[in-house]
Amino acid sequence: MFCPNCGTRVAEGVRFCSKCGSAVNQAPAAPVYQSTPQYVIPTAPQPARENPMIERVRTAVRKIGGSPLFLVVAICYTLVQLYALLTVGATGGNVISGWIPFLREFGFSSSDINDMISAFNDTGWLVKLISLTFGILTMSGLWAIFAASHSSAKEPGTAGLTIIRVVTILKLVCYGIVMTILLVSSLIGIAALSVYSEPEAMVGVFVVFAAITALIFIYHTKICATISRVKETLYTGKPNHRVSGFVAVICFLLGGLAAIGTIVNVVDVIPYWGRGMALRYLLGQIIALFEAIVPILIGILIFKYRGRMTRLEQEEDAPAAPVFVQPVVTPVTPAAPAAPMVAPVEEAQEETVAEETVN
Questions:
Q1: Tally of structural domains, the chain
Q2: pTM above 0.70, yes or no
Q3: Which domain, by its residues, includes 199?
Q4: Which residues contact 239 (CB under 8 A, 6 or more apart)?
Q5: Among candidates 31, 29, 32, 33, which has minimal Cα distance to 335?
Q6: Is 203 a domain residue?
Q7: Neighbouring-strand partners of residue 9
């Protein structure tokens, strides 16, 4: 670089010309400030938290499936199946014996009724065997539900519900076949009687069988839909109270009528106490009373389930409480203080005065 006054070459870093003593204006280097380093501590990724409502819903379903009321259902149903297993060799004539007054009222003769009883006796063992198979499968499903409700596994077990649903579908198929045969037989009877007399009796039987067929179909279809909704609730954890109240009402009706009939039969057999057959008959009526209790308790469980799911749905739809977030204060690193700057002109004057004093 060169002196701006006399043009003499001046070395880098020299502030004054060595020939004329003029100040050499050089731009001062900008001060460099080093900021305090910031350290970032790596944190492990946090696992996603499950919605607490999901666990509450599953817990509510498990409480119903593992309740003492459900345990009573499983025990009573098991006793019924054990008794059926012990008496599987009995004939099936008693199945239709209760219908004798009804059949006579609609014009069936004694010989026709005896033929029907003989037919039931011939096929009664097969009907009982099929019914017992369905009963044992349903019993295993009930105990599987109770065991899964007390399991500590996080994933809900639905094997018991699946078993009962499959059995219900098979029952529906079997009932459909039987009722179709009966309806076709009624139509044939109506056609045969219309040739000789008025067919009012067979028309009444046909209407009764048709109504029973429709009721059985709707009842079992609603049972399958109810089981499917309970399984969906366990899988998704979303409350759903839309289980069939129709099933619960039919359960109350079937159980209530069966219980009344059983009590009446027990009262009728009291005068014959002391005979061997009376004790056996009384045991059968006690088992029949257990069988009547099962649908009544199932109806109660359905309504309890509906009530519990309804409350959870209301809680889920309720507006969430406001969440107040604590403000985060970010620390600011202070900058390093600036070094004092001295004007070049003042330094040049001071150095010039010093040289003149020396000279």
A1: 1
A2: no
A3: 53-240
A4: 53, 57, 60, 233, 309, 310, 312, 313, 316
A5: 33
A6: yes
A7: 2
